Amino acid sequence: MPASATASLPAKSYVSIGQIRPLGALLEAPASGGCDTLSSEDKASCGSSDGPDDMPQEIWDKVKNHPCYSEEAHHHYARMHVAVAPACNIQCNYCNRKYDCSNESRPGVVSQKLTPDQAVKKVVAVASEIPQMTVLGIAGPGDALANPAKTFETFRMLQEQAPDIKLCLSTNGLALPDWVDEICKYNVDHVTITINMVDPAIGAKIYPWIFWNHQRVTGYEAAKILHERQMLGLEMLTARGVLTKVNSVLIPGINDKHLMEVNREVKKRGAFLHNIMPLISEAEHGTVFGLTGQRGPSADELKEVQDACMGGAKLMRHCRQCRADAVGLLGEDRSEEFTPDKIEQMEVVYDLDKRRAYQEQVEIERQAQHDAKQQALAAAAAQPADDIKVLLAVATKGGGRVNEHFGHVTEFQIFEVSSTQAHFVGHRRVDLYCQGGFGDDEQLPSVVRAINDCHAVLVAKIGACPRDELAAAGIEPVDRFVGEFIEKAALDWFGDYRQRIASGAITHQQRGDAQIRQGAFTGVAAAA
Question: Is 347 helix (H, G, I), strand (E, B) or coil?
């Protein structure tokens, strides 16, 4: 590797989408936000739902059915990860990789490592059964670029056998500059880089060591090398037209006040999205932070940092911090349906025409959701405006509709609703309340705490006990919007809520904070 790889970066080598130039060209940072169109309401369509009007057509074509790059798409399209990259070249204090674990839902965890041949066979099987699966990512359980031979052999075979599937990879960025040419060779046009700092002094508190030039480097020097390689790799990808998403783990007391600077710096270098995620720090996961008592953020703390970054790089708020072998829509995991023994028994037919026809129907449903939202917004605009904003929890199993029983929820989607907007701002994992056909009353308090900042919860159905518990906590259970699109239901509920306030029937009150339950088990885990 060239010695200059770890040298100081140029003061101005920054680029953004729509301003791509050869690496090293001097560009001024755009005055606007991510996608060059961010408003105070955070409405730019990269990562949200407004459509292609505020970005070049070629960019829209890349993100419109990518569930991680479009908030609207994540209601309708699925993704999968294949665990072909077990090795890692850095150590993070929030990470503990596990290769045979089925009962934890977090990055770095898989049930089984795969060879490239096994991975491609699994992808083809999943794509034949889940035609709305549009994206294949390699995200571990280590680092995709610390395992380059396995990563790119998987991509090579997939290009031949499943040419319609978008290819993605996730990396810590240490090896990224060395593999940009290979990334472009295989048309990998979405790359996620985990960047938790732009100050090595802060990085030294997060990364105990990196493996660099055949030796272990520790402390400040390790964080400095990692930072410089991350920035260089991000610039190189942007210059080549590859869309980049930056992931940052919010660690209270370490980088929570620093992530605004991270947001500014990655925006300068052309990052398409910035995903600020809560630290997962349950002690049972065995991470350094978990074992030393480093806490994760509360819901208010996470939203406060995300909101403080509005106006910089466009924010992604719908990340699920997936396992490295996740399959299905974001928020669900169907990997147990596609174990190697089950795939051997399947009659796999990769029918490209069938997949396209199914996705055309998905787009019809997606357009219906968009139209319903616009109609509801138009109706809301006809009413007198006020400054009331509330959070709503929604029970959904996909399709952008209110369609899940309260007792079957393993995560709630959270929407912020006002007289002018209903937009997705996050999700909350919860322990499964209904198990074996009966409610587990011991789990109910933790479910309530997870949505304690919400004024109401929209569900398809709810039992008497949780209904009473929610009402006692000041959260209104609402089951009259079954099957309706979420944004329309949210705006309709909010209109009724405002009418009740105006009539004096109720008084609007602010809610308290909520608990991010990152240690919640999945449905698969509950059955294990």
Answer: coil
